[in-house]
Design a protein that fits this description.
Length: about 425
């Protein structure tokens, strides 16, 4: 969550109830607005995706997901996004390799270009999600409008509300935003009650989540076979799968700065992005159509038939998707890394089930997602939450809490999948 929120929370005195009342209306407005923007961009991208990947190849008599069409579309997406990045004011925001969920406040003139680059990316097939750029746009809009409409409220309030609202809208629940806020506040000495500090952002997150739920009916539950009572074999399984998935994720994290540096040597977006798109097309041809796009719809297809692929095929999809995430995040496509990382974890967990039939598919998926997300995001609570909601099984939660400990030992203190402006990894 926004650093401004944490700083305010640690510095502010205990807040009486009447001082929280002015936060209600801004939180409600920002929550609804953040959700509507997310749904609008996602809906527009889905419509464009249908045109690019269904209508157009059908009209041309080309296979929808043929190797030729993947190469053409991914390269063309790189060209289109490269034009946007090179021509629009502010070049569609900072280098996406340097950004995370804690978005900077961008000038309002930068936001339309960032939205356009994000929509083109989502429709064209690169392996990134909408979270980082949508958070950045919502933060910029909320700050710009909030400072004009309610100048008396603290400046840091608007980014905090927008980030929380967008995270709530993305996951369809305010719990994810609450967990991110708790991580931002960890280690800070709070004055007053914790709920006073998170009152506004949590209300914004709940409003954003409710708006998304009412309008779009999102569900992260993969509807895998129900998991029964855990046993010692299940504990052993998660203690192996989660750290192994974390090691797989760390391989991409450690390569991130090097791959980013290789693309940076091309110097211009009209070289970096088309070349990146071509590489993504080759990876798509290698991994198949399920390894394209942000990954949420694709994990539903994987989970619908956990035995429909061999262990080698699941492993191949996990590796290809991770490589595609690495390339897309390095060459300049505007997008986030959480959703494609979830696909990697799901494929990894189903690979474990295919290798060892005694590993329950829900258990393998949850442990795989937990390990990969810990490595890629370094957000422990969000990783645990995401892994748990995918399988909707309270019995697995205790096993995941235990499995997170050895996985965390492997990733903590090591480079993150985020770079500083000078290209060095964030730790």
């Amino acid at each position: 969550m926004a650093q401004d929120t944490a700083q305010q929370a640690s510095a502010a005195p205990a807040t009486p109830a009447r001082a929280l009342l002015p936060l209600i209306l801004p939180a409600l407005v920002v929550g609804v607005g953040a959700s509507l923007l997310l749904l609008g961009v996602s809906g527009a991208a889905e419509e464009l995706q249908h045109v690019l990947w269904v209508d157009l190849p059908d009209a041309l008599g080309v296979g929808r997901y043929s190797v030729l069409w993947m190469l053409v579309m991914l390269t063309a997406t790189g060209v289109a996004v490269g034009l946007v990045v090179s021509k629009v004011p502010g070049h569609a925001g900072p280098d996406p390799a340097t950004t995370g969920l804690d978005a900077p406040v961008l000038p309002v003139a930068v936001l339309p270009g960032l939205l356009l680059a994000t929509a083109l990316m989502l429709a064209g097939g690169p392996s990134l999600g909408p979270e980082n750029p949508i958070i950045a746009v919502n933060v910029g809009l909320a700050f710009w409008l909030g400072r004009r409409l309610s100048p008396r409220l603290p400046r840091g309030l608007w980014p905090a509300l927008a980030e929380a609202a967008t995270i709530g809208a993305l996951f369809g629940t305010p719990v994810a935003a609450a967990l991110v806020i708790s991580e931002a506040l960890a280690g800070r000495q709070l004055r007053g009650a914790l709920w006073d500090s998170v009152f506004g952002p949590l209300l914004a997150a709940a409003t954003g989540a409710l708006t998304t739920t009412v309008l779009a009916h999102p569900s992260f539950d993969l509807r895998l076979p129900a998991f029964g009572r855990p046993g010692w074999a299940d504990l052993l399984a998660v203690l192996v799968i989660a750290p192994a998935a974390a090691l797989l994720g760390m391989a991409a994290v450690l390569a991130f700065a090097h791959v980013h540096g290789a693309f940076a040597r091309l110097r211009h977006p009209m070289l970096m992005l088309p070349v990146g798109g071509l590489v993504l097309g080759l990876l798509g041809a290698l991994g198949g159509r399920l390894t394209l796009f942000k990954g949420l719809d694709e994990i539903d297809e994987l989970a619908a038939d956990p035995t429909g692929w061999s262990a080698g095929q699941f492993a191949g999809m996990a590796v290809v998707k991770l490589a595609a995430l690495l390339v897309a995040a390095s060459c300049g496509f505007r997008g986030g890394r959480i959703f494609p990382a979830v696909f990697v974890g799901v494929a990894f967990g189903l690979c474990a089930h295919a290798l060892v039939d005694a590993v329950h598919p829900a258990l393998g998926v949850a442990a795989g997602v937990l390990g990969v997300l810990l490595a890629v995001t370094r957000q422990a609570w969000v990783s645990l939450f995401t892994a748990a909601v995918l399988v909707a099984s309270p019995a697995i939660l205790a096993l995941l809490c235990i499995a997170s400990l050895p996985a965390w030992l492997l990733v903590t203190g090591r480079p993150q999948m985020q770079l500083r402006e000078d290209g060095t990894p964030v730790r």
